[in-house]
Design goal:
alpha+beta; Fructose-1,6-Bisphosphatase, Chain A, domain 1; D-Maltodextrin-Binding Protein, domain 2; 2 domains; eight-stranded mixed beta sheet; 8 helices; globular; binds 1,6-di-O-phosphono-alpha-D-fructofuranose
């Protein structure tokens, strides 16, 4: 059995990055325990506060965020961190080699219904300068040195890329460690499965309405094949399905709040997932171009997302260009 730390050593991951990834894995095992306790330990429900996004925080959002901050800041490997639950960056160890951006608990609306949630993380090298600021985080996603997530599902799974493909690990509860279970993840170029929140259909831009209508038209329509639909309402779970069996996932711009480019956040949702999807042979775009090429302007900025099977993403993006 290949445990995480052994696999990282074998893959020539820089020792400080391997140490940081090990700390992230330990923090997420701690989060998994809280989630599994659920109602028994009074961690469900709302924390009664709003976060920087104006979203009501769940108790487990706050607990997960605090756990990750404590572990990461104590590790000595983190120069600074950014979190969905933090207004601004949090300075870490002045000799820390890495910047970490994370969504401590993606899919929070699933917590109280015992459905899937996950922790998403994105890692950049720290600047060589003495000081660190939000500006240091504002790098295109292509500069990430590692990205991944821990999915708290029937199995607790760590999915990770350090730039050499994508590996999947499953938590061995008895050993208390993550075991390598998929050595190389690949996404098929074509698919017959898509993921979108259909209830927003009337708010989408016209090209997305046409693209989805053509999927729904199935074999009698222009695509000449039938499609299946899934929507878990947790990006981490929908992306995991795509890494496991292919598909297309999209959360497009809609006109409910026209000034908002999308719902998903670039730094700690779209960028890390885009790295994983590209490393697995898929594509990750906005309607304007690759997500990993976007020059960020602020740490909580939002983007529209179209990711998954390369040929299907190209078809979806093409609907926007033709219009
Ligand atoms: P929450 O963390 O607030 O539940 O949002 C999850 C998420 O950011 C992303 O993980 C999902 O894909 C998407 O929002 C679900 O959005 P809808 O609830 O509008 O379907």
């Amino acid at each position: 059995m290949q445990y995480l730390s052994h696999q990282l050593q074998q893959s020539n991951t820089p020792p400080e990055l391997a140490s940081l990834l090990d700390v992230l894995a330990v923090a997420c095992k701690d989060i998994a325990i809280r989630l599994q306790q659920g109602a028994m330990s009074g961690v469900l429900g709302s924390a009664g506060e709003e976060n920087v996004q104006g979203e009501t925080q769940k108790k487990l959002d706050v607990i997960s965020n605090d756990l990750l901050k404590d572990y990461l800041l104590a590790s000595g490997t983190v120069r600074a961190l950014a979190s969905e639950e933090e207004q601004s960056i949090v300075a870490g160890h002045d000799k820390g080699g890495y910047l970490v951006a994370f969504d401590p608990l993606d899919g929070s609306s699933n917590i109280d219904i015992n459905s899937m949630v996950g922790t998403i993380f994105s890692i950049f090298e720290a600047p060589a300068t003495d000081t660190v600021s939000e500006q240091d985080f504002l790098q295109p996603g292509r500069h990430q040195v590692a990205a991944g997530y821990v999915l708290y599902g029937p199995s607790v799974m760590l999915v990770l890329s350090t730039g050499d493909g994508v590996q999947m690990y499953t938590l061995d509860q008895s050993a208390g460690d993550f075991v390598l279970t998929v050595e190389q993840v690949t996404i098929a170029e074509d698919t017959q499965e898509f993921a979108i929140n259909m209830s927003n259909q009337r708010y989408w831009a016209e090209p997305m309405q046409r693209y989805i209508a053509d999927l729904l038209a199935g074999s009698e329509g222009p695509r000449k094949k039938n499609f299946n639909m899934r929507w878990v309402a947790a990006m981490v779970a929908d992306v995991h399905r795509i890494l496991c069996r292919g598909g297309l996932f999209t959360y497009p711009w809609d006109n409910r709040e026209p000034n908002k480019p999308g719902k998903l956040r670039l730094m700690y949702e779209a960028n890390p997932m885009a790295m994983l999807v590209e490393q697995a042979g898929g594509s990750a775009y906005t309607d304007a171009g690759p997500i990993l090429d976007i020059q960020p302007e602020q740490i909580h900025q939002r983007v529209p997302v179209i990711l998954g099977a390369t040929n299907e993403v190209a078809i979806c993006v093409d609907y926007h260009h033709k219009s």
